[in-house]
Amino acid sequence: MSIFKNLPPAPAALKKPVTDTRHGITRTDDYAWLRAENWQAMFKDPSILDPEIRRHLEAENAYMKAAMADTDALQKTLFSEMKGRIKEDDSSVPVKDGPYAYGTFYVTGGEQPSFFRTPRDGGARSVLLDGDKEAEGKAYFRLGGVDHSTDHSRGLWSYDDKGSEYYTLRVRDLATGDDLADIIENTGGGGAWAPDGKSFFYTVLDDNHRPSKIFHHIVGTGQGDDRLVYEEEDPGFFMGVGGSMLDDFIYIDIHDHETSEYWLLPTSDLTGEPQLVAARETGLEYSLSEGGDVFYILTNADGAKDFKIMQTPVETPAREHWTDVVPHTAGRLIISHGAYARHLVWLEREAGLPQIKIRDRRTGEEHAIAFAEEAFSLGLSGAAEYDTDVIRFSYSSMTTPSQLYDYNMVTRERTLLKTQEVPSGHNPGDYVTRRVMAPAWDGAEVPVTLLYRKDLALDGSAPCLLYGYGAYGIAIPASFNTNCLSLADRGFVYAIAHIRGGKDKGFEWYEDGRMEKKTNTFKDFIAAADYLNQQKFTSYENIIAEGGSAGGMLMGAIANMAPEKFKGVIAAVPFVDVLNTMLDDTLPLTPPEWPEWGNPIEDRTAYERMAAYSPYDNVSEKPYPAILALGGLTDPRVTYWEPAKWVAKLREKTTGSEPILMKTNMDAGHGGASGRFQRLEEIAFEYAFAIKVAGKM
Question: What residues are annotated to the active site?
Fold first, then answer.
């Protein structure tokens, strides 16, 4: 029997059938009308949304509020707990760069970060940008960051005030705090300064929200006068621009999910034409880090599935000059790398756990920074300066708050700079974190990270929030998360399933969860639920599944495949209308996503494969668990109509009594609310749903 009582009638979306025939196969979509025809313009001006669509979304929000009304007090309690674990007036440890050290801070009650600098070795703090001041009067505001020029005189900063991820760039005089007249619209959010601080390079998004052009802007001139440096004509590729640490080059980075291409513009001639490093070759990935007279290249060339590091002279960067430095080792995935005057540094993952490795460039001697916990997370910050022996990294686990260290690569000494404060108190000894292995259908072992209170009875009665993602090779770290303590303290097991589609166990783990093997992702998640049930960490009637974006596709798939194994499902900005989206090549991410999922426009096999698992297309008459879908009106990544259509179809088809709820943030996009406390309110809402579904209110 449902825990939700006395609900008003649920909104019933109108049916307006639209048929589509591809490869001789005809499909009918009853809810296609929820896709706004003017979506490109609406992302920039949400007020022009079709009134009929707006009324439907608002009706869904009203129904959701009615269903969750009895959790209002719980939400406030959860929010208060989560907020109490945050040091409100927190400040980062400044990073040294030249005569200054740069950092960020928050003020008590503030939603947005502010940026500051001090003299290099300490002293008075100068505020460069006040995030709360810039956000005043805006329903949504997200900063893209601040990047200072090489001479430290100016800052380049950006903001998005609609949630559509069209960022506006501004130039600030760092001495006076005043913005110059320069306003650059419709950018990707960042830029790269030329060494003289008088100009910068940036990426422009086209009407379909794709980064198609890179321009060179001279400070003091209009955007219309900017020189076009590079134009990418293939809509299937992402593009970005950045600068080398030594300021010798501007990098143009072009890539999709399996192919890379770099172009270099020497800063000695800013009016020159970019030079190609290695032409794009399907399946070849590489990235550059300048090391003085050489480039260090992280790549999967020559069959190095888990990547290796090569080098090439700066004067001759073409692929025929690449030679091995750190050879490929199967099962050891090299994630990122950085080069400094005397050392080469990289972050790798083996057997599901991260490790930082350091190589002396002169002697070739290598050593690791290793840790002993069963499951943990590492972050490699590196350094802002090239001529240094000191890098920075962070460490945490599910029970250990984040610790920030400086590490001397010569003496191998660690200096603890900061430990994450939990103002309301946290005793790691009250909790247990574990890494268990769930057997999958084909014999693979799926890592599952667990967090629960030490005194929890593991007899199957505990509720469980089981989180998963499983796409794009993204590994989910076993890092400290103060929010999930609110669940653990209420008797929950908090679990992360490190399923195929991510690179948690190397590149092959990713390959085994994409394209024709995509269903392994879904089966792995169900296998994790099976294992937790069998081992009595929880039971099927107590598991609430959660995932977002591509993890929302996972939520839709497992709800179709094994609804009886989940008490509830939380799907945030869920990519559930997979087939329709991959057939619509005008949408921002569709062409770049084809290497991840397949191209159903050209390939009948890809069409049939997607049609077989696409959550929206496979909703059928069965008793679905309680479902909460979350969307953002201006989301350019997973458009609002995906969860809206999915919910409409679920509500039409379900034979069960559990409610299907949807909450659309009418003032935000893919990332949800932009303020740090606003975001906590959203998490408190999601957790309140999980607690209510679990019957633990």
Answer: 549, 635, 670
